Amino acid sequence: MGYALNFNLIWRHFDKLWGGLLLS
Q1: DSSP per-residue letters across 1-24
Q2: Does the pTM of the predicted model rise above 0.85?
């Protein structure tokens, strides 16, 4: 379960990163 949570956090961080790249 902890691993899944970690993956979710990383995925959200990735999403934010991509969003910033697309917006800039």
Answers
A1: -HHHHHHHHHHHHHHHHHHHHHH-
A2: no
